[in-house]
Amino acid sequence: MKNLHFAIVFLAVLAAGCGSPPVKVVQPQEAHDDDTTAIQAASKAWSAADVAKDLPTCLSFYADDAERMVPGSYVISGKEDLRRAWEKHLAATKSSSWTTAKIEVAGSSDVAYETGVYQSKIVNEKKQPVTTTGKYVFVWKKQDDGKWKVVEDISNPDQ
Fold this sequence. Notes:
Elements: H1 2-18, H2 29-51, H3 55-59, E1 62-69, E2 76-77, H4 79-92, E3 93-105, E4 111-123, E5 129-142, E6 148-157
Parallel strand pairs: 1-6
Antiparallel strand pairs: 1-2, 3-4, 4-5, 5-6
């Protein structure tokens, strides 16, 4: 009887273990810190390129399959549409900058998001200065070469 009881308990434990979820692999904190630092540096360089009106550098932060979503516009995707949108933005903008508030890197260290605030100054059709402030979300994806690129660029003005 003892052997039957032991066998039943053993099978119950084995069966319970078979239904458990897969183990989640989490990267060490140092890897996340390195990824966060890399994204912070990329975002800062991208903002500086925006200020310098450096179109090729601004575009270089996007992945090949990136999308940009801004109010009053269709979803901008593809290299040519992104180029046209950035040409228009750089031509109209007198100054622009953004500040990172938060960066969260996934446990897998292959995707992350960044949130923050931005400010943009333009001169409207009446030659009057207009300042827009707002919030943004960048979704970053680590590329095969280890570099982080934006796959989703979403902005939302405060007004």
